[in-house]
Design brief:
- The chain contains 38 helices and 13 strands.
- It is mainly alpha-helical.
- Among the domains are: about 100 residues, Roll (Ubiquitin-like (UB roll)); about 150 residues, Leucine-rich Repeat Variant; about 150 residues, Leucine-rich Repeat Variant, CATH 1.25.10; about 110 residues, no CATH class.
- The strands form five sheets. The chain has a four-stranded mixed beta sheet. The chain has a three-stranded antiparallel beta sheet with strand order 10-9-11, with no helix packed on it. Strands 5-6 form a two-stranded antiparallel ribbon.
- A hairpin with an 8-residue loop joins β9 and β10.
- The chain is elongated.
- The chain starts with a strand and ends with a strand.
- The relative contact order is 0.06.
Length: about 1000
C-alpha cells in the first residue's frame, strides 16, 4: 500500500475579489494520501484537517511548486508526471505543499455573477481587481473564456462609463497576453467589434487603449486581419457609416489634435492592410478610405510643419503599400483624364517616396513584431500594455477631464435586492407573445377578453358605470315567503306576478335558490348577454297528476334495528443500510450511476431511480465517517451501502443535479396533469351550454317546481340537481328525477341520456382545481429553481452541449408554463362568466368550487341516465305487454274470422317466365278457398298440369317455408303470404312484396 505524505495548506479564495495569495496556516500540517484511492475520496480529510472555509463540493487541490491542479477523479499514482519534482532536492522539497482552494470553474462563475449583479462602487472594485486576478492564476484565463466571460465583459462595458471601460480594457489586455485568452478572442468576434466601437469614443484614454488592443490582436497573427475587417464592417454597417469611419474621424482631428492617437490609428490601418490575404479585400478597404478623403488627410499631415516623424512614417507606409499592388493603375486612372506620361511620373514619385520611407524607418529604428504570436514581442512593442495599460497618472488625468460633469454627487438610491438571472429570463419570456397551444391541446380560442374577470368591481364599474349589487336582503317582493310553521295555515302569497298553476292540494316544496335575472348589469360580456333560463322552452305539465303524486303527507318515523460472513466496513445503522441495499436492487450497477448522473442519461436511470437516489443522498457526517473508516482500514472493503454512498459523495452538486433531472423527467406528466383538466373544463362548459337534453331537463324541472311551489321562478341554481333524486312522490315513492325523466322522454323523444354528452364535465369532476393551481405554481417554482441548479452545476465541469440542451429545455418549459398560467387565468374567468350565464348570483360565484360544480352535474347526469334506461325499459315492457295481449289465448280460427270481418285479402299470384310476368288476382277472400280449388284455378290460368303444382307457405315470423301438397281431403285455409311453386320456375305471390325471384335470383 503506497502512501504520499506532504504538507497541506488552504487558500481562502471563496471570494475571488477579496482573497489573498498567502496560503494558510503558516505552519502547514502533514497529511498522508493513499496513492491507490481517488483524491475525491480523500479531499474531505484534507478539508477537515485544515478546517477550511470552502464548500467541500467546490474544492480543488493545487501543487505549490508549479501551480498545476490535480485531477480529483484520479489517484496520485496515475498523476506521477504532475507531482514530479514536488519532493526533489532533499530537504528543500519539504517547503512545497498541496494547497486546498476553490475550483477554477467555481471561481470564474463567481466572478461573472459578481460582474452581472454588482453596481456602483462594488462593480468598480470588481472591475479594478479583475486584471490582478488573471495575473495571479494563469489557468483562470482559459476557464474565464470558456465560461463566456468575454460576453460578460462586453455587456457590462456597454452600459458602463469611461472609468469602468478603462478597467475592463485593462483586464482584457491581460487576457490577450495569454495564448488561451487570445484564442478565445479570435473565436469571439463580438469582442473585436466592441473594441472597434470604443475607437469612436469621446474619451481619449478609452480610444488609446482600444487601439492598442486592436494592434496587439492584428499583430498576433496575419489571419486576425480579416477578423478585424469583419468586425469593422459589422459595426459600421449597423451604424449606417462607411467602413473605418471611426479611424478616419481620428485622422481628421475632429476632436482636436492628438499625435499619439493619430499614430496608433494609422498603424492599425497599415497592419491590417499588410495582413489581408487577397487583393479584393485590400481594394475594398483602400476604396473605403479613399472615399472618406484619406489622400487629402495624408497630404495635410505630411506637408504640415512639425508633424511627428512616426506619423509621417505611417502615412508613407500607406502610400507605398497602395503603390505596391498597383492600386493607382486600377483606381485613380479611372477618375482622372491624364496622359500616360503623368501616370509614369506619379509612379516614379511614389517609388522615391517609398525608398525615402525605408531610409527613415532605418534611422528611426522602429521595432516591429515578428508576427509569430509571442507574448515577448508584444511586451517589447507595448511595454505599457504589459505593465498596465493605464497608468495611475493617466487614470487621474482622465478623471479630471470629467470632473466638472461629476462635481455634484448623485443621490444614492436605496439598495434593492438584485433579481436573479432566472427572474430576468422569466420576465423576458413573459413579455414575448405566444400561441396558446400545449402539444395537441388547443387553447387559442381563449382571447384577451378572458383576461378580464367579470366579477372584478372595477371592470363592472368601468364598463357600465354601475355599482355592484349588494347581497340580497332578507325579503324581497319576488322571493317566496318562508315556509309556514307546522300546523299553521300558509300566509297569503305576496302580490306580484300571477301564478302559473293553481293547486287544490298541499304539495311538498323544492328548496332551491331562485335565480332572478333582473337588472342584468353583466349583459355587456359576450357570455352573459342572455341567461340560460331565457333560452328555455315552456313545458306543459299534467298538474293533476303531479298534485296527486307530490301531495304532502305525514311522515312515518323510521324503525330502528336491534458466523461465516465476509468482513466489511459497516458504518451506517441497520435501518439506513437496509433501505439503501433494498434500493440498490432496482438501480443499475453503482459503477454506472455516477456517469449516468453526470451525463443525465435517461436510458441508464429512470424517473423512479432518480427519486430513489434522492432519498439516499449522503450527509457530510456519513461521508466523513466512511472516508475515515476507509483510511483507517485500507485492506477491508466497504459494505455495499457505504460504497454506494461514497460514490454518490464524489458527485459534485449531487442534489442540484438530481432535482434538475427529476424536474426534466417529471415535467411532461406535470404539464399533462394541468393542461388536460383545463381543456376538459373548457370543453365541458361548451358541452353544457350547447346541450339540448340539459335544457329539456331544466325546463321540465322548472315547470314542476313552479307548480309545486306555487311560484313563477325564472330559474334555479344548478346545485339543486343533487337533491332531485332524493325528492319522492307520496303515492308511489318514485323520485322526482323519475317523473322528470318520464316527462322528458315523453315530450322530447329526441333527447339523449345526457351523461354520454358531457364527458368533459365527468372528467373535471375528478380533478381538484385548487390543487391544480398549486401544482401550476409548483411547476413555476421548480422551473426557476432548475435555472439556479443549472447555474450551480455549470460551475463544475459540464459539457457545453449538455448545458445548452438543458438550457433549451428549461427555456421551453418556462414558455409552456407561462402559456399554462395564461390559459388557467382565462379559463377560470370564463368559468365565472359561465356561472353568471347559469344564473348564479355574482357575490357567491367566487365561492363555487369547480370540482363540486362538475361533480354535481356529473352525478346528476349519471343518475338521469340510469333512470332513463329504467323508464325506457318499463315503457318497452308495457308496449310488449299490449302486443302480447292482442293474441294471447286466441285460436287461429278466431284470428282469421276477426281479420275477415275487417278486410278481404286479395293475394296476387305472380307468374315469372322468360323475363316476363303476369299476375292473377283471386276475386274472393283467400281465407274461404280450399287449396284444391285454388290449385285448379292456377293450373288452368298458367297452362300447367295440376299434378305439377303445389303451394309453399311463407310464414311472416319464421325463417323456413312450409310446403302444402293438396289432396282430395285437403281443407287448409290460407291466410297469409304464400308462394306458388313450379318444379322449374319459382313464383312468389304476396300481398305487399315487390321482389320477384326467378331461379333464386332477385329481379
Amino acid at each position: 500500500m503506497a502512501t504520499f505524505a506532504c504538507r497541506v495548506q488552504f487558500l481562502d479564495d471563496t471570494d475571488p475579489f477579496n482573497s489573498t495569495n498567502f496560503p494558510e496556516p503558516t505552519r502547514p500540517p502533514q497529511f498522508t494520501f493513499r496513492e491507490d484511492i481517488p483524491l475525491i475520496n480523500q479531499i474531505a480529510g484534507v478539508h477537515r484537517l485544515l478546517k477550511a472555509p470552502h464548500k467541500l463540493d467546490d474544492c480543488a487541490l493545487q501543487l505549490s511548486h508549479n501551480g498545476s491542479y490535480l485531477d480529483l477523479e484520479s489517484t496520485l499514482a496515475e498523476q506521477r508526471d504532475e507531482i514530479e519534482g514536488f519532493q526533489e532536492d532533499g530537504g528543500r522539497g519539504k517547503k512545497h505543499s498541496i494547497i486546498l482552494r476553490t475550483q477554477l470553474s467555481v471561481r470564474v462563475h463567481v466572478c461573472i455573477e459578481k460582474l452581472y449583479n454588482s453596481t456602483g462602487r462594488e462593480l468598480r472594485r470588481a472591475l479594478f481587481s479583475l486584471k490582478q486576478i488573471f495575473q495571479d492564476d494563469k489557468d483562470l484565463v482559459h476557464e474565464f473564456v470558456m465560461a463566456e466571460g468575454l460576453t460578460c465583459l462586453i455587456k457590462v462595458g456597454a452600459e458602463a462609463d469611461q472609468n469602468y471601460q478603462n478597467y475592463i480594457l485593462r483586464a482584457l489586455g491581460q487576457i490577450m497576453l495569454y495564448v488561451d485568452g487570445m484564442n478565445g478572442l479570435i473565436g469571439h468576434n463580438e469582442t473585436v467589434q466592441w473594441l472597434y466601437t470604443l475607437v469612436g469614443s469621446k474619451f481619449r484614454l478609452v480610444v488609446k487603449t482600444a487601439l492598442k488592443l486592436l494592434l496587439v490582436f492584428v499583430e498576433y497573427t496575419e489571419s486576425n486581419a480579416p477578423l478585424l475587417i469583419q468586425a469593422v464592417n459589422t459595426v459600421d454597417t449597423k451604424q449606417g457609416c462607411k467602413p473605418w469611419s471611426n479611424a478616419m474621424e481620428i485622422l481628421d482631428e475632429k476632436d482636436g489634435m492628438d499625435t499619439e492617437l493619430l499614430v496608433y490609428a494609422m498603424t492599425l490601418i497599415n497592419k491590417t492592410l499588410a495582413g489581408l490575404p487577397d487583393q479584393d479585400t485590400f481594394y475594398d478597404v483602400v476604396d473605403s478610405l479613399e472615399e472618406q478623403g484619406m489622400e487629402a488627410v495624408a497630404k495635410r499631415h505630411v506637408n504640415r510643419k512639425g508633424t511627428d516623424l512616426d506619423l509621417v512614417e505611417q502615412f508613407n507606409i500607406y502610400e507605398v503599400s497602395v503603390c505596391s499592388v498597383c492600386f493607382s493603375v486600377r483606381h485613380r486612372c479611372s477618375g482622372q483624364d491624364s496622359s500616360m506620361t503623368s501616370l509614369t511620373s506619379r509612379i516614379s514619385t511614389l517609388e522615391v517616396r517609398r525608398q525615402t520611407c525605408e531610409d527613415n524607418m532605418k534611422k528611426l529604428e522602429v521595432d516591429h513584431l515578428d508576427n509569430q504570436g509571442s507574448v515577448r514581442a508584444v511586451a517589447e512593442k507595448f511595454g505599457d500594455l504589459v505593465k498596465g495599460l493605464v497608468s495611475p497618472h493617466e487614470v487621474e488625468h482622465s478623471g479630471k477631464e470629467t470632473q466638472q460633469s461629476q462635481e455634484k454627487p448623485l443621490p444614492t438610491p436605496s439598495p434593492t435586492p438584485p433579481k436573479k438571472e432566472s427572474d430576468h429570463i422569466w420576465d423576458q419570456l413573459i413579455a414575448t407573445p405566444r400561441e396558446l397551444r400545449i402539444k395537441e391541446l388547443d387553447f387559442t380560442d381563449l382571447g384577451e377578453e378572458d383576461d378580464v374577470d367579470i366579477l372584478d368591481v372595477s371592470n363592472v364599474i368601468g364598463s357600465s358605470d354601475l355599482t355592484p349589487p349588494p347581497p340580497p336582503p332578507l325579503f324581497l317582493p319576488s322571493l317566496p315567503p318562508p315556509p309556514p310553521l307546522f300546523g299553521c295555515p300558509p300566509p297569503p302569497p305576496i302580490p306580484g306576478e300571477p301564478l302559473l298553476f293553481q293547486k287544490k292540494k298541499k304539495t311538498i316544496r323544492l328548496f332551491w335558490n331562485e335565480v332572478r335575472p333582473i337588472d342584468w348589469q353583466y349583459s355587456n360580456h359576450k357570455s352573459c348577454r342572455e341567461s340560460l333560463w331565457s333560452k328555455l322552452d315552456a313545458v306543459k305539465l299534467d298538474t293533476a297528476k303531479l298534485e296527486n303524486l307530490f301531495e304532502t303527507k305525514s311522515k312515518e318515523l323510521p324503525k330502528t334495528a336491534a458466523d461465516g460472513k465476509r468482513q466489511e466496513i459497516i458504518i451506517l445503522d441497520s435501518k439506513r443500510s437496509n433501505a439503501i441495499n433494498i434500493g440498490l436492487t432496482v438501480l443499475p450497477p453503482p459503477r454506472t450511476i455516477k456517469t449516468a448522473i453526470l451525463n443525465f442519461d435517461e436510458y441508464a436511470l429512470s424517473k423512479e431511480g432518480i427519486e430513489k437516489i434522492l432519498t439516499m443522498i449522503p450527509t457530510e457526517e456519513e461521508t466523513q465517517k466512511i472516508q475515515e473508516a476507509q483510511l483507517a482500514n485500507p485492506d477491508t472493503p466497504l459494505g455495499s451501502a457505504e460504497q454506494f454512498l461514497l460514490i454518490l459523495s464524489s458527485i459534485s452538486e449531487l442534489s442540484a443535479r438530481l432535482q434538475l433531472w427529476a424536474f426534466k423527467m417529471d415535467y411532461d406528466a406535470l404539464e399533462k396533469e394541468v393542461a388536460e383538466p383545463l381543456q376538459d373544463l373548457k370543453e365541458g362548459m361548451d358541452q353544457l351550454e350547447k346541450n339540448k337534453t340539459l335544457r329539456y331537463i331544466l325546463s321540465t324541472l322548472l315547470a314542476i317546481g313552479n307548480f309545486l311551489n306555487g311560484t313563477n321562478a325564472k330559474g334555479f341554481e344548478l346545485s339543486y340537481l343533487e337533491k332531485v333524486p332524493e325528492v319522492k312522490d307520496t303515492v308511489h315513492k318514485q323520485s322526482l328525477l323519475h317523473h322528470v325523466c318520464s316527462l322528458v322522454v315523453e315530450k322530447f323523444p329526441e333527447s339523449s341520456d345526457l351523461y354520454s354528452e358531457i364527458g368533459a364535465i365527468t372528467r373535471s369532476a375528478k380533478v381538484d382545481f385548487d390543487q391544480l393551481q398549486e401544482n401550476l405554481c409548483q411547476m413555476e417554482y421548480r422551473c426557476k429553481a432548475s435555472w439556479d441548479h443549472l447555474k450551480v452545476i455549470a460551475k463544475h465541469e459540464m459539457k457545453p452541449a449538455l448545458k445548452q440542451r438543458m438550457s433549451d429545455f428549461l427555456k421551453d418549459c418556462a414558455e409552456r408554463i407561462i402559456i399554462l398560467k395564461i390559459v388557467h387565468r382565462r379559463i377560470i374567468n370564463r368559468f365565472h362568466s359561465f356561472l353568471l350565464f347559469l344564473g348564479h348570483p355574482p357575490y357567491a360565484i367566487r365561492e363555487v368550487s369547480i370540482h363540486r360544480f362538475s361533480k354535481i352535474l356529473s352525478e346528476f347526469a349519471l343518475e338521469y341516465r340510469t333512470t332513463r334506461e329504467r323508464v325506457l325499459q318499463q315503457k318497452q315492457k308495457r308496449a310488449n305487454h299490449r302486443e302480447r295481449n292482442k293474441t294471447r289465448g286466441k285460436m287461429i280460427t278466431e284470428v282469421s274470422l276477426d281479420n275477415s270481418k275487417n278486410s278481404n285479402y286479395f293475394c296476387p299470384i305472380i307468374h315469372v317466365q322468360k323475363g316476363t310476368f303476369s299476375s292473377f288476382v283471386l276475386g274472393s277472400p283467400l281465407i274461404s278457398l280450399r287449396l284444391n280449388n285454388v290449385l285448379n284455378f292456377c293450373a288452368s290460368s298458367l297452362h300447367h298440369k295440376r299434378e305439377a303444382l303445389y303451394f309453399q307457405m311463407i310464414p311472416v315470423s319464421h325463417s323456413h317455408s312450409v310446403y302444402l301438397r293438396p289432396g282430395k281431403t285437403d281443407s287448409y285455409l290460407v291466410y297469409g303470404p304464400f308462394s306458388l311453386v313450379c318444379p322449374r320456375v319459382l313464383r312468389i305471390a304476396t300481398k305487399h312484396t315487390h321482389h320477384l325471384h326467378y331461379n333464386n335470383k332477385t329481379l
